[in-house]
Amino acid sequence: MGATFFFNILHYALRPWPWILVALASIVVFPDLESIRQAFPNVPENILKNDLAYSAMLTKLPTGLLGLVLASLGAAYMSTISTHLNWGSSYIVNDFYKQQVNKKASEKELVNVGRISTVVLMVLSSLFALELNNATQLFDIIIMFGAGTGLIFLLRWFWWRINAWSEIVAMFSSGIISILFWQNEEALFLAENAPFPAWSKFPLVVLITTILWLATTFLTKPEENKVLYRFYKITKPGGPGWKKVHEEAKSEGISLEDDNTKWSVPSGVLAMIVGCILVYGCLFATGNWIYGNYPLAIGLTALVLVAAFILLRIWRGMKNVF
Q1: pTM summary value
Q2: Of 39, 40, 75, 173, which is the most exposed, with the fewest CB atoms less than 10 Å away?
Q3: Sign of the C-alpha dihedral, residues 307, 310, 316, 318?
Q4: What are phi and psi of 65, to 5 degrees?
């Protein structure tokens, strides 16, 4: 937990500022598209957009640093590709094939399925990438996909009835719907006679995905009690959504938790909110110190210190629970 919190401070509060400062400098160096066109006359018109200014700033680096940046970008690209291929393959092998197709599969069979999955994922992602014109399109699809699956990824901790098929259907349906909406965005949301307003794109993804995974949940069998009991003992989800499981275990003479154990989820939710205030307070406090907005910077810094104190108290209480 400490490592995760430390990462969030560095990743969301401190690391964006070198990027932001370079982006602000790019507005001065390349104030409009025409200035980029003059600096890079060989760039095709379909690529010449505002976001090109950031990469254009790389040309201002000396040769040694430019080579270092290019090497780091190549390393980041390869690590991202390998991570997502391994991640996707592990989902297919461990969460789908081993659980739903062949529970008695040998290690050799699982390795072969993993290899095939990796190749298939790489081919499909490469074909999909050819349809994209810029990073913004992919970002929108990722946001839509996350919006569709976000609800079930939260509710699975609060409701015992959600099973593996619920999550599988949610992930596939959210991905497919997001791609379909992206492909037909003009006709569905942006045209004058479009059937849906532009703001409804994300709520529709959430609504359709939720209907599908809820239907799947009630049409498929729940997880076996022994699986639910083991999950409960490990995660201690508690709350009204797990009351039925707790009562069934009690009727079977199985103790899932001590009577004095406190439900930690409300404290966890409060810690999440305070943690967000702390992290984003650090982000904006840093920016205002850099910009010279000292009164606002002092106020935000004070807010960060208060949030840190509150979070520390909550954190200690949660440690006592576990």
Answers
A1: 0.65
A2: 75
A3: negative
A4: -65, -35
